[in-house]
Amino acid sequence: MSPLFGILFWCCVVIYALMVAAQIFGQAFGKQKWVEMAPRGVMLGFALHTMLVAWRWIESGHVPTIGNFENALAGAWFIVLMTLWAGWKQRYPLLAAGALPFALLIMGGGAMSDTSVQPMVAALQSFWLYIHIFFAWLAYGAYTVACGAGIVYLVKSGKGRETPEADLARLDELMFRSTVFGFITDAIMIASGSIWAKSLWGSYWSWDPVETWSLLSWLVYGVALHLRITLGWRGRKFAWLVVFAIIGVLVSFWGVNLVMEGSSHVFNVG
Amino acid sequence: MSAPTWLRRLTSVRTTLALLCLLALLLLLNVALPQRAVLGEEQYARVTSTSGPVARFFLETLGFGHMATSPIFLIVLALFFVNLAAVLAIRLGPTWRRVALRPRSEEGLKAWARMEESFSEELPGDWQVGKAVEILRGFGFQVRKAGEKTLWGVKHRTAPLGFLLFHLSFFLLCAGGVLIYYTRFVGLAVLSEGQTFDGSYNQILRLPPTGRQPDVRFVLERVDTRLEEGRPVHLQADLLIQYSGGSTSRTSRVNHPAKWGDVSLLVEQAGLAPVLWLQDPRGFTLDRLVTPARTRGGPPTEVPIAGGSVQVLIHPLASPDLFPGRDERGAAAMRFQVLEAGELAFDGDLAPGEAVELAHGRLVLEDFRYWVDIKVIAERGGGLLITGFVIGILGLVWRLLWYRREVAITWDEEAFRLVGRSEYFSKRFRDELAGIFSMLREPGPTRQPDTSGESSISQGG
């Protein structure tokens, strides 16, 4: 990572952090203007973030998918993109305060790992990598939006709050829709990963911790959807569900490279 | 317990949820506890031998050290599939009826339209059934007349079939998994360039319960490999598959295994294989061998020559950056230690063409070849798995994104009413309903319902 790249990266992190802080401040002290202005700042940060992703792509010669840093850079980009999109579509600016802390967490974790540009090792030279990772990012982005909406829902529906019913209904539906979208894309991610694993390791399923975690978190969201669709869990109950379910996703995200380092399922020479 | 009661319990969503939670818990234990499949037999045995009695109870007695074959996991999985099968059997009829393009009775629809959440408005002067039908069709609804003054429309009526498809996919995945379990063979062959594989594996990693081994023979003709910044970016092995009556070429690359029938040949690792000659003082060859050596890290590779009278230790390269490309092998060097009758006779780097003089002859390094690990895998059932994946995802999309929506319009001389419901995304559907309502209120050209062909409105029954 060049010094300029590093400076811009941290500028981006700081912008996101300030905007999250502004929304929390606005919400806590009743300054609606702060809440509504923050998405513009997030857009500024997102423009910078997009430039960084493009820079890294050009510099490395491949989609930023290799190692913790690139995964964090691109994964957080998807989270911010989906947060902005959902916030705009749902006319809900406060969503950033709920979802962006996860992007910050991921970016901070990525920055603490090896940030050097790495060559595309043979094991990753597969068409399936892009399918697998693209859908993983979509799924994790959607789950994060659901979690962010869940956090906002819990705050807005707390005791003593007088939030209009329509606002809560909008958040409730956003949680559900994001979970549905995440569940479908997560399924595609698992299936494509399994097909790729067959080509790379010769086995569709190896009970590798990363695979198992992915299946586990998918199952948890499956349970959440069953509870919603068949038992009618809505509102605060569903919000708690999606807030807790994100834990599995975070473990999957960080678990990947932790396991890859020690795994024998990596192409090696010697 | 009477049959209907146990059947109700078996097919209840609470049972499904309980089983899903149990499965999730077992998967959590799978990650938390040491697993034989991840650690390998030796390391797993070391872990269990140093574990306390409680850990051994979980790992060995309950079988959680190999979750996929643990009796508890298999019982929960079996119960899950029984639950799934029972739910599917019970839901088949109702789902089929829901999918049929058949409106409810006019009375029922009228009662529904009188509910509080319906939209109602004074009947426009130019009210025509044809216009209402056209509006509903414009929103993607299939429309049926349910009576003289009642219309019924449904959108994505087949969405409930997605439920069946999604849950059916689990059975395909299960069948694929079982088939793979009973047919999967994995063997490891370590070959140097020019060597023939005749079915003698260096290690058999997995034998299927039937004991069947694939009948495959091949020659490793050539290996290409490349490292950048010490990281492997290319590995390819050219193979000549031999069969009765002929031979055929195949290439195996990382991520692109060679295929021969239901056998896959995967290359995983590569290294240098020094070609060594032991000659007597007169220059006659006593021994010649090609030795796959650990090239990048690990302890030196020990090679006994001439019945062990000469011992050669080949050290890995000092740095992965020194790993030679195909055309650089002539200039490459590895560190060799040569012991003759237990005494160190040589310790230093050797390049191809160089020799070590010994008391009773000389050891010549002729060349460096490449060696590769080739995994020979034979199994059946992959097609079922992939079909299961595809059907499952299609089912999810069909069920969750093309969700079913239903509307009814009733009218009399004074007013009309619009009511609707969707399986989910109620807010989104409410917006759609408001759009339909606003168009129904607007004055517009009058139309007669098209009664011909596909677009005809039939009387529901």
What do these coordinates show?
The complex is a heterodimer of chains A (270) and B (461). Chain A has helices spanning 3-28, 32-60, 67-89, 95-111, 127-156, 165-201, 209-229, 235-262, and one strand at 268-269. With 270 residues, chain A is mostly helical. Chain A has two domains: 1-120; 122-270, no CATH class. By secondary structure, chain B is of the alpha+beta class. In chain B, 34% of the residues lie in helices and 33% in strands. In chain B, the strands form four sheets. In chain B, strands 4, 6, 10, 11, 12, 17 and 18 form a seven-stranded antiparallel sheet that branches. In chain B, strands 1-20-19-3-2 form a five-stranded antiparallel sheet, sandwiched between helices. In chain B, strands 5-7-8-9 form a four-stranded antiparallel sheet, with no helix packed on it. In chain B, strand 10 and strand 11 (263-279) form a beta hairpin. The radius of gyration of chain B is 36 Å and the shape is elongated. At the A-B interface, helix 6, helix 7 and strand 1 of A face helix 2, strand 7, strand 8, strand 11 and helix 10 of B. Strand 1 of chain A pairs parallel with strand 11 of chain B.
